Amino acid sequence: DSGVTQTPKHLITATGQRVTLRCSPRSGDLSVYWYQQSLDQGLQFLIQYYNGEERAKGNILERFSAQQFPDLHSELNLSSLELGDSALYFCASSVGDRAGANVLTFGAGSRLTVL
Amino acid sequence: DQQVKQNSPSLSVQEGRISILNCDYTNSMFDYFLWYKKYPAEGPTFLISISSIKDKNEDGRFTVFLNKSAKHLSLHIVPSQPGDSAVYFCAAYSNYQLIWGAGTKLIIKP
Fold first, then answer.
1. What Rg do the C-alpha atoms of chain A give, in angstroms?
2. Which residues in A8-41 are b (16+ Cβ under 10 Å) and which e?
3. Which residue, of A3, A49, A51, A52, has the greatest Cβ tally within 10 A?
């Protein structure tokens, strides 16, 4: 158990639908990162929050949004889902706000399948 | 435009021998380079990192080498053990962006 909790572990939904993925960071970590991993690809950085504020944005689609709440947990909202959104979504957390200088602790991921 | 490339999708190494995983990058502004290891059904776990101002960093059986002129880094695992069988990701960091390679699957043969 890494200390980062992601729910749900698996999710199957239809095109056009909306889903919410949830992440609880490791205790003491202030940063939360969201990554998307499609089949046999590297991790694509989506977005980072630090202590409730957006810190950095990657290749996140306009149909996707995220937020970090006062208790530091984070949610990633995916709407108007398309087949290509099927992927493994990872959440990671770190103490500081720089992913290069801080060790990221990852959750086990949420596997989204869009049919 | 892949800024971080791992050109070998897989690598098979005999137990006890050296494993060498390679990574190439294009952006000379990266500040840090990191290696993460991933087992099936788990998230990646941090392995080792190196600052752009250094050319070598060691941690037990793991050593990372950075060749800035060639924009190349490598991870050496000596000796390789069965538990090292996993997917290894190279990542590079600059300006709040951590860019990942596609990963190399390392298989350690008994």
1. 13
2. eeebebeeeeebebebbbbeebbbbbbbbbeeee
3. A49
- Binary contact (B34, A56; C-beta < 8 A): no
A103 → closest Cβ in B6, B46, B96: B46
Q: What is the pLDDT of residues B56-70, one digit of tens each?
A: 999 999 999 999 999
Residues of chain A with C-beta less than 8 angstroms from the C-beta of B98: 33, 45, 99-100, 104
Closest residue by Cα to residue A30 from A83, A79, A97: A97
- Whether the CB-CB separation of A90 and A109 falls below 8 Å is answered with yes
Chain A touched by B44 (CB under 8 Å): yes
Q: What is the mean pLDDT of chain A?
A: 94
C-alpha to C-alpha distance for A46 and A66, rounded to whole angstroms: 9
